[in-house]
Amino acid sequence: MIASQSDHRRPPSPPRAMSACPKPPVVFQTAVDEDGRVRLKISGDLDITTGPALTDQLATLADLRPAGLVIDLSGVTFLDCASARLLAGMAALLPPDQPPVLTSVRPAVRRLLELLGLPMRIAD
Q1: What is the DSSP letter of 59?
Q2: pTM tops 0.70
Q3: Mean pLDDT for the chain?
Q4: How many CA atoms within 13 Å lie on the side-chain side of 32?
Q5: 118 — phi, psi (to 5°)?
Q6: Cβ neighbours of residue 68 under 8 Å, at least 6 residues apart?
């Protein structure tokens, strides 16, 4: 006699709600050099949730009419396309042939910027 085995597995559990881990806020630090060049250091993720803060920060910088713009991205762990376009849009407010210069760019962020081909210079 052949004994049959029945499948007594439990039905799949419904997905669990992910715990709401608050994301650290994006932080901006700005300095203006004597020659009118603005230095902006950004820390945190630049995505849809931080886009309004980035827009406000860049509007404040636009009011300064900077002679140049250097953006330190060493603290940026994620950058979405919309935020990259906002940063590149600052080129319109700078002197001709002086696109924003990005420094300390992490590899994943650099790859996105290179794929987008926006008018910014990435310094090594």
Answers
A1: H
A2: yes
A3: 86
A4: 11
A5: -80, 160
A6: 35, 36, 37, 38, 94, 95, 98, 101
Domain ranges of the chain: 27-122
User: Taking the domain 27-122, which CATH number applies?
Assistant: 3.30.750.24
The pLDDT score that the predictor gives to residue 6 is: 47
Q: How far apart are the first and last CA of the chain?
A: 75
Reported as a pLDDT band with limits 50, 70 and 90, residue 1 is very low
Place of tokens 């042939």: 97
Sign of CA dihedral 72, 61, 118, 81: positive
What single string gives the DSSP state of each residue in 1-44?
Answer: -PPP----PPPPPPPPPPP--PPPPPEEEEEE-TTSEEEEEEEE
What six digits make up the tokens of 24? 């650290």
CA nearest to 101, candidates 28, 41, 11: 41
Of the two residues 20 and 5, the one the predictor is more confident about is 20
